[in-house]
Target: Amino acid carrier protein
Amino acid sequence: MKKILLSIFTVILPILGFAQDFEIVGDVSNPSTSINDGVVTITVKGGVEPFTYRWSNQKTSLKSNRSIGLTEGVPYTVLVTDATGASKTAVFTVKADAITEIFNGTMTPAVGALGSVLFWDPFAAVGVYDPVVYADQKQIGIPNWTNDINNKYTLVKWLKADGAKVVNDEPIAIISDNLGKETTVNSLGKGTLKQLTAEGKVIYNSENSKHVIEQGAHFFAQVKYDEPLVLTHPNGDPLTKPISFIVIWLVLGALFFTIRMGFINIRGFKHAIDLARGKYDDPDAPGQVTHFQALATAVSGTVGLGNIAGVAVAVSLGGAGATFWMIVCGLLGMSTKFVECTLGVKYRDILPDGRVFGGPMNYLRYGLEKRNMKGIGKVLAGMFAVLAVGASFGGGNMFQANQSFEQLAGQFPMLEGNGFAFGIVTAILVGVVIIGGINSIAKVTGKVVPVMASIYIVAALAVIIMNIQNIGPAFSAIYEGAFNPSALKGGVIGVLVVGFQRAAFSNEAGVGSAAIAHSTAKTNNPPSEGFVALLEPFIDTVVVCTLTALVLIFTGMHEVEGLAGAQLTSDAFGSQISWFPYVLAVAVFLFAFSTMISWSYYGMRAWTYLFGKSKKIEFIYKMLFLVFVVIGASVSLGAVLDFSDMMILAMSFPNIIGLYIMSGEVKVDLGEYIKKLKSNQLYRKLEGK
Model:
């Protein structure tokens, strides 16, 4: 016993001798006036090496004493632990010098606060499920494999038997390529080996379309861990896949309205097409624009960068299966649009000069006032208007100008560094349109939207047709990915949430913005515009978003990691049509331009609700909007853009509350409209006119 104790003290005493309180010294630097490029390097004086560094910045490794890419003006913590377990915390803040850094640093906490509400996970909060991402197995594939590789790989020999225990870096198999070059592959984890490919069989062949499309076709083995591992960020924080409250809020609303309105998204589709084609356009009806022009204006506000960049992100995160759930959510969102746009027309206010004031501000205030809920109505309408103004300057303006400039500069290098000039030119183009009001906006969107959508759709169909041999594997990948996804994709729930989130964020069903545009339509029957509006999510999500996803899947680009969304889509098109990235860059600008002019109208109507309906008030808003176009194109605003983009989603809170309360009223109006339609009491154009 004495010998054992002596041995323990012999080991521990040297450590105790070295163990001591240590000091953390930090070197803080701000290398430029660009945002989010702060650097903190720390030196530990004393303590026992090796040290671990747990930074609050999730992108910094536990092994790194240097954290980069930090937001100026925001405090960051680091917990340093030495070999004896002693730990100490230090806090560092990179000083914000430039005005953009000050804005960005000030808005970052606000983004966090709003994000904590929008992306809060109620299911995880009450313990229904664990949002932490676990890995129960490690997939082992062809070393250095990429989706665009042109080669054939065969499994030559297994070095470990199926079911054998393996450790990390232990040789498990020999594979060869089409030139006969052999490579020994080692295990990437500790656990039980499962062989997925037999000796002598082909693992991956780039000439086999099924292999190109299939998710993870290049994997030939799995190592099942003895215990599931928690996947973490570089700083050690666990990875999570939450079910965001905002997604639940939008999707449950869409499901409720679909059932409440008797699946109007399906049974009303044909009539919606007839209305959009102008079959029921009454030239003497009150309003400012035709059904088609109202639809084009609203579509231009939703079809944009989300359809190009956002879908690529969704498919790369959720796999091919996210496409299926995206379509489902888009179909449900059609019912929400029907309800909000019917109310938008019903509660609109038309002034003697012909200007129309409508949208959620009106139906939230006056629709609820009719139900003796005047106080709640005023609060919800005011909240919506404030959010809509903020969203119009940010997500509907600066974000569009910023991203379209980046995309164009990426394809046309001469634009690099000329953001201010680009902003001025864009502001002039936007100004020429919006100064003329909704009639001018509707005329432009009525021409731009069909052209840009046609170019994009034709190009997408061309890529799909060029890879038509992949149609079977592609739809198989979508089905398998939707109902049998890998654990790393988050399982069925994870893929479903990714798909629903992309669709909900893209088509803005429930946000209420489209009701502002549709309230200007010439009609005597509010439900008629609801029918037209339900085409929006169909065009935006079921058609455009789905085509983007299919292009990625048909070209095998859905398996690429590490690329930004828009770049991934551009590369997918470019892999088939070498010159198309240039066309796509122009299309992105047109998408952004049309979104800006639509959102200028949404924001202006919210602005006039808050500050008055005079033309002078409208002019002030338009001038401010054009200033923000220039700012968005020429300055990196980081968190400011993130916050204002989130405001678009936040608009759905007051809006959907009102829609729930007034859904019964809409159902009654729908029933009366259907009766008129069946008895031919609606105005209808004569054939040939």
Q: What stands out?
A: The chain has three domains: 19-95, 134-230, 247-679. The chain has 24 helices and 16 strands.
